[in-house]
Amino acid sequence: MTHELEPVATTEQPLGRRVYRHVYSDLHQRVRRGDWLPGERLPSINQLARDLDVGTSSVREVLRSLQSIGMVRIEHGRGVFVTDAPPAPDLSEHFQDVNIGLIFALAETRRIVEPELAALAAERATDEELAVIEQLAREMELTVLEQRDFVDPDVFFHRKIAEVARNPILFRMMENVNDLFLESRKLTSLEPGMTSRAVRYHLLIADALRARDIVQTRLLMQAHMNDMLNSVLAVAPAPPHG
User: Fold this and answer.
1) Helices (DSSP H) in the chain: which residue ranges?
2) Which of 72, 190, 229, 240 sees the fewest Cβ atoms within 10 Å?
3) In terms of Cα–Cα distance, which of 79, 92, 76 is closest to 28?
4) Measured distance CA(55)–CA(47) in Å, rounded
5) pLDDT category, 139, cuts 50, 70, 90?
6) Coil, strand, or helix at residue 80?
7) What is the rounded distance in angstroms from the CA atom of residue 74 to the CA atom of residue 83?
8) Can you tell me the mean pLDDT for 16-39?
9) CA pair distance 71, 87, nearest whole angstrom
10) How remote is the C-alpha of 233 from its chain's centroid?
11) CB 68 within 8 A of CB 171
């Protein structure tokens, strides 16, 4: 299937990123200072969303991130519980002083890792999970065409692929650089045409995943990551090596 899109002029708004960081910081600090003790259940997602005056989707994504670093445990049908184990280091804390060198390093890392995650997803994901990935690709297409904030479906698309690849180490690694990924997306969106190309890649990758074409999925994600790296180079100078 061929997906043709006309270039769409967009200006990425940082709202989604700001909301995520606000919720992440709040819940992270509250668990750290013992507002909820190990083994204790957190308030419901709906209650947390009301307390923080944000959407439930933002709370849900933050809880998944906290689970990825071992801070909480999500038990479907029961709730979210603080774990007894100390959390794994959150790599995003090392990237608060974001610079082009780190963004370039992330782009290189994603070019190595994400094609293999996509290939694993094509092999291991359920049909229902692949349908969710396709829906996220179409959601991004719609938000871009309507010139709305497209960050969430973009980030969730890649996050879902990493999740259904079912490699917990690679998934946690990608989760821990989420903030840096958002900074990178903010930068690459400055290149004209980058967003519309990303939409088309997402649609094509979703098609290949649904067909369970491992080779094609890997190649398309590789092309997407190469394009993303080129966009970083197009809007910022290459960092020195060594």
Assistant:
1) 15-32, 45-52, 56-68, 100-124, 127-145, 151-164, 168-175, 178-188, 194-210, 214-235
2) 240
3) 92
4) 11
5) very high
6) strand
7) 10
8) 82
9) 5
10) 21
11) yes
